[in-house]
């Protein structure tokens, strides 16, 4: 598989990690999930992300998931692997292992101890040096990491750390950050790197309008993100908004802290992507009322999609 580059675009869906009802790793569902995402038209897959329950996996299980996914894809789509760790040694060890297995690149979030602009730059400078020729994604997710990285710092990282090829943009609010980064690269002040956006796709149309190249996030209907990104590529901005609007109520529901991932996995199981919607313990469990909410949203979504011919 070719390595990840600054030219990456489209939808790199964040994969869930399938478990059985009892909490065991479900490798058969990794196969069906990969097939499901590929059929939805995604450009790539990101595994072991924040909503992939990566902290609940052992290192051996993490390797098994990556290996199984890469084997199923057989080079048809690039795979990015989250390798964030408290130290550079475990991060580098996992990164080298997954790249040897055939991954296209890795994703790294800053540790919560990063407080200043200089510390942010120094961390990613160290990451770049440790990874060598391995391309990496800078995950900018201050709502989870509590680390805010200003546009000027990201630009410095891009200028001085050549193997940083992508920004996973999840600042919120953060549309002005995309505008600032694109303005800088347009003036030739820094390289133009790929910007893929997260936050469940909640701001995807606006992010695309600001210069994003696509999405790197999860949603139980990845075809929504594919449809929005493709419509923008075709210059059909209003069509992109129509598609997005049809799915927005369910995407919003997925953003709830606690039960959001459970709702996503419930729908993915209902759609046949995975066998069970269970999360690994400790885990939230959807109540009957939660399930009724989701089913109502699905029914209304189907009606709206039919109305717009999507």
Give a summary of the structure in a few sentences:
The chain is of the alpha/beta class and 310 residues long. 49% of the residues lie in helices and 11% in strands.
What does this structure look like?
The chain has 310 residues and is α/β, with parallel strands linked by helices. It has one domain: Alpha-Beta Barrel (TIM Barrel), CATH 3.20.20.70. It is 49% helix and 11% strand. The protein is built from twelve helices and eight strands. It has an eight-stranded parallel barrel with strand order 1-2-3-4-5-6-7-8, surrounded by five helices. InterPro entries: Aldolase_TIM, DapA-like. It comes from Devosia yakushimensis.
**Low-confidence segments:** none
Main sheet summary: 8 strands, parallel, barrel
The span between the termini is 33 Å
The number of distinct helices, counting runs of at least 4 residues, comes to 12
* Radius of gyration computed on alpha carbons: 19 Å
Could you name the CATH topology?
TIM Barrel
In what order do the strands lie side by side in the largest sheet? 1-2-3-4-5-6-7-8
The counted number of beta strands is: 8
Fourth CATH level, the homologous superfamily: Aldolase class I
Please write the string of helix (H) and strand (E) elements. Answer: EHEHEHEHEHHEHEHEHHHH
Overall geometry comes to globular
Q: How many domains make up the 3D coordinates?
A: 1
The helix content is: 40-55%
CATH class: Alpha Beta
List keywords for this structure.
8-stranded parallel barrel, TIM Barrel, 310 residues, 12 helices, globular, alpha/beta
